[in-house]
């Protein structure tokens, strides 16, 4: 998230690079891409971090959003970068299986 005097492109220039993402993926031994949000706001603005499985972005049991705020950030000329991770999926997920849904859709189209 960038402060009021910044542009979303400033934050994007920091995080949307392999030099940033690859270091994080290597540290947590992940294969999937990093989900992200781009936002502009002042101190205490809510930050949402969409999360998913580190190796399989289609595994819905791990779709969850972490929400937080930092009371004194970002100031007008600051950029806040937040990384979120979890050691498991949602408790009792009922969201279904993306891969089964894809198979069923393909079967419906074939009929």
Strand and helix layout:
Layout lengths: L7 H8 L2 H11 L18 E5 L12 E5 L29 H13 L1
Antiparallel strand pairs: 1-2
Low-pLDDT stretches: none
- In spatial order, strands of the major sheet run 1-2
- Briefly note the structural class of the backbone: alpha+beta
Major sheet characteristics:
2 strands, antiparallel
The end-to-end span amounts to: 47 Å
User: What is the overall silhouette?
Assistant: elongated
Beta-strand percentage range = 5-15%
| Alpha plus pi helix count | 3
Roughly how many Å is the radius of gyration?
A: 17 Å
Structural description of this entry:
- The protein has 3 helices and 2 strands; from the N terminus they run ααββα.
- It is an alpha+beta fold.
- A two-stranded antiparallel ribbon has the order 1-2.
- The chain is elongated and about 55 Å long.
What tags apply to this protein structure?
111 residues, alpha+beta, two-stranded antiparallel sheet, 29% helix
Describe the structure in brief.
This protein has 111 residues and is an alpha+beta fold.
């Amino acid at each position: 998230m960038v402060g009021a005097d910044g542009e979303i492109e400033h934050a994007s220039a920091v995080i949307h690079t392999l030099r940033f993402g690859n270091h994080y993926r290597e540290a947590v031994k992940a294969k999937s891409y990093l989900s992200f949000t781009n936002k502009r706001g002042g101190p205490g603005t809510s930050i949402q971090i969409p999360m998913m499985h580190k190796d399989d972005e289609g595994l819905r049991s791990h779709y969850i959003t972490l929400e937080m705020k930092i009371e004194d950030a970002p100031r007008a000329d600051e950029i806040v970068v937040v990384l979120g991770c979890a050691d498991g999926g949602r408790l009792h997920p009922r969201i279904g299986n993306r891969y089964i849904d894809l198979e069923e859709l393909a079967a419906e189209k074939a009929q």
